[in-house]
Amino acid sequence: MEISVRSIRKEFDRYPALHDVSLDIRSGELIALLGPSGSGKTTLLRLIAGLEFPTSGQIFFGMDDASAKSVQERNVGFVFQHYALFKHMTIAENIGFGLSVRPKATRPAAAEIRRRASELLELIQLPGLDKRFPRQLSGGQRQRVALARALAIEPRVLLLDEPFGALDAKVRKDLRRWLRELHDKTKHTTVFVTHDQEEALELADRVVVMSQGKIEQVGTADDIYDRPATPFVFSFIGESSEIPVIVSGGRVSFENTLLGIDAEGTADGPARLFLRPHDLEVVANGGGAISGEVMVVRRAGPVRLIEIEVGAARHRIEIELPADDGEHLSGTVHVRPRRWRLFPAG
Ligand code: ADP
Ligand code: MG
């Protein structure tokens, strides 16, 4: 089911949680909403679900204007961060719950609901746990059951709000891969909310980066990482440094040094030069390079990160070097960006 979010605005007591958000989600796609806390991810998900209604704008499910429809009419499945399994029900009863509360005319027979629950337990790779209770399962297993319960109603769309957020790092990573494999099998149109960039970039077909109730960029992991559309996306994703520069006639200068980089069509005037630690190389002399003083050298797993201070205002730039190369770096160094990104200032 494709979903089209059209010019949505959502206010809570006049406070705009979403401003003019438009987004097309493709049928069968796994899309991640990524952004810091308070950026509007949950609000957008709840609007798609029908748990909230927009102040203005529309939501289409296929050709169908769903804007005023209820959760049941939209037929969506959810999973939230905190296990919402019913403690006093078995795993099979939990999975079958959405079917067992349907009106009599559309409710499957009890034996059929049990059969469906067993089938879903196979799908989520927990076969045979039908008769267990939630307390007998680990946190990761419970979230898989929550997903099976959401799938039991054969939803048109699956909506997941930080479903692995309460689990520890290792379990989260395993579940991330597991969910991707499950999605490749079932192909449900899925919207996955997370504030974890690694999770979003690894899991999703496309990532929607949000900040302050607006969409900053929609793209694949490569688009978001290599071609960030805005300063926010550049600095939110991965490690980055920024220095103020002046663009003039296609040339870029930092304070009084002309940098050996191309202005990439950026208009003349003040600009912001964004750099990533692994896109900076240390060079022998200062010609066209940025010179600075080494302040901090620290080991970060397989690499070494070096912080240098540059310019009169002592901006900090971070460089990444192989652990062996960076170890004894000190004093004045000259660095040259291999890749960079310029945005007009202001
Ligand atoms: P996220 O999920 O990205 O952390 P939310 O969508 O939960 O962000 O919230 C976006 C903004 O809307 C926040 O400033 C939040 O305080 C506000 N907000 C969310 N829900 C409500 C509500 N029911 N009433 C008032 N303000 C809300
Ligand atoms: Mg949220």
UniProtKB/TrEMBL annotation:
GO terms for cellular component: ATP-binding cassette (ABC) transporter complex. PROSITE patterns: ABC_TRANSPORTER_1 (PS00211), ABC_TRANSPORTER_2 (PS50893). GO terms for biological process: quaternary ammonium group transport. Coiled coil: none annotated. CDD domains: ABC_CysA_sulfate_importer. GO terms for molecular function: ABC-type sulfate transporter activity; ATP binding; ATP hydrolysis activity. Keywords: ATP-binding, Cell membrane, Membrane, Nucleotide-binding, Sulfate transport, Translocase, Transport. It holds the Pfam family TOBE_3. InterPro entries: AAA+_ATPase, ABC_SmlMolc_Importer, ABC_transporter-like_ATP-bd, ABC_transporter-like_CS, Mo/tungstate-bd_C_term_dom, P-loop_NTPase, Sulph_transpt1, TOBE-like. Belongs to the ABC transporter superfamily. Signal peptide: none annotated. The keyword Repeat does not apply. This is Sulfate/thiosulfate import ATP-binding protein CysA. It comes from Aureimonas endophytica. Residues 3-237 form the ABC transporter domain.
